[in-house]
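Subject: sequence -> structure tokens, single chain

Hey, anyone have a minute? Need the predicted structure for the following. Not urgent.
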Amino acid sequence: MWNKVQETVQFLKDKGIVNIDYGIILGTGLGNFTDNVNIIQTIPYSDIPHFPTSTVSGHHGELVYGKVGDKIVLAMRGRFHYYEGWTIQQTIFPVRVMKFLGIDNLIVSNASGGVNAQFKVGDIMVITDHINMIPEHPLHGANDERFGPRFVDMHEAYNKKMIAHLDSIAQKQNIKTQKGVYLALQGPTFETPAEYGMVRRLGADAVGMSTVPEVIVAKHMSMNCMGISVITDLGLEGIVEEVSHEDVKKAAKLAETAMGVLVSEFIKTY
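Reply:
Had a minute. Here:
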């Protein structure tokens, strides 16, 4: 892992990918955030050494390097999921690379199913904490101290100062946000009514198939993380409805403009 990360980092530095303020991982239906970026360079994943390639519809599969205001960002248009068949180490590989490109601040986004009765489709949920139920842990196995310590403190996986600043932007922009706990399952099936009930009883507000491994690894390397989830379907008691990936993408589209404003203004002002 160490050698592969260093080779990829050097490849990107040689391309001029340097001095980055924020790493961003864009999830389902949120790839158009890059419309808010003054793009300097775009690199397909297929051109990057040791990078997997995204196989999910709606995930473009490229790194976007550019500016938001006077801040430099590196955005992943499309992430890698454990359910696609990648190893857990492959899914988190880009986060390792981001850290060694000098990135200390990571913004992650996703689409998720809401199980909180106060939520509705299209809501933006700021993630305050998570529950990891993906069967393979990204730090399983021998620990390389060059990345981080054996045991990682996760008491503040999602940075409270970043959340507070995002709250202030949402108020100024009159954008309604929710807050909640995100639970990660392996996927790729959407949840059964019984599974949605389990998620609720475990104390989560939304459920999805990503994000948590990336945040765990980011915290392993002492990065600051902020997570935002778009509620694309509901699994409430008595109202679990049929859902497809196309439905999820359409619902994510509802929040795309507000999401773009929130994240752009956050990056400019934090």
